C-alpha cells in the first residue's frame, strides 16, 4: 500500500488525537464519513495503524523516576539473546528495550516511583534475568522532549 497525501494527513490527525471519530476526521479531510472509515480500515489492515492507546501522565501515577540502563550479557549466542529478550519484555517497569550495536548489548528505558523502587527492581528483577552480567544505569534529571508521533511528510 502506498500512502497518498490524504492518508498522511489522516495519520497525522490520529497521532495527535486518536479519539477523533470518523465524522470529525471527515470534516478535517473534506471527505465523506464512509470514505474516512474505509481509509482507516485500510490503514489498520495494512498495519500502518498498529493499535490505539491512551497516554497517561506518569507523574500523576507517581512514576517519577526514568532510568536508562545499559545491559551487558555474559554471552552473545542466538539462544542467550533470545532468552534475555523473552524475559525482559515481561517486566512492566521496562517501557522500551533495544538491542544496541556497540559496547553494550541492550538499552532499556525503565520507569519506577523513585530510587528505592528502582533499587528493588534492579536487585530482584533485572539483575536476575538470564545471562545478565552488568547493568549501568543513568537517571533522567528532566524530560525536555517526549513525543509519540512520528514525523510524517
Describe the structure in your own words:
The protein is an alpha+beta fold. It has two domains: 5-45, Orthogonal Bundle (Arc Repressor Mutant, subunit A); 65-139, Alpha-Beta Plaits (2-Layer Sandwich). Helix content is 35%, strand content 20%. It has five helices and four strands, in the order H-H-H-E-H-E-E-H-E. Strands 2-3-1-4 form a four-stranded antiparallel sheet. Helix 2 packs across helix 3 (33-45). The two termini are 16 Å apart. The model has no long low-confidence stretch (mean pLDDT 96).
Question: Short summary of the structure?
Answer:
This protein has 153 residues and is of the alpha+beta class. It contains five helices and four strands; from the N terminus they run H-H-H-E-H-E-E-H-E.
Can you give keywords for this protein?
153 residues; alpha+beta; Arc Repressor Mutant, subunit A; Alpha-Beta Plaits; 2 domains; 5 helices; 35% helix
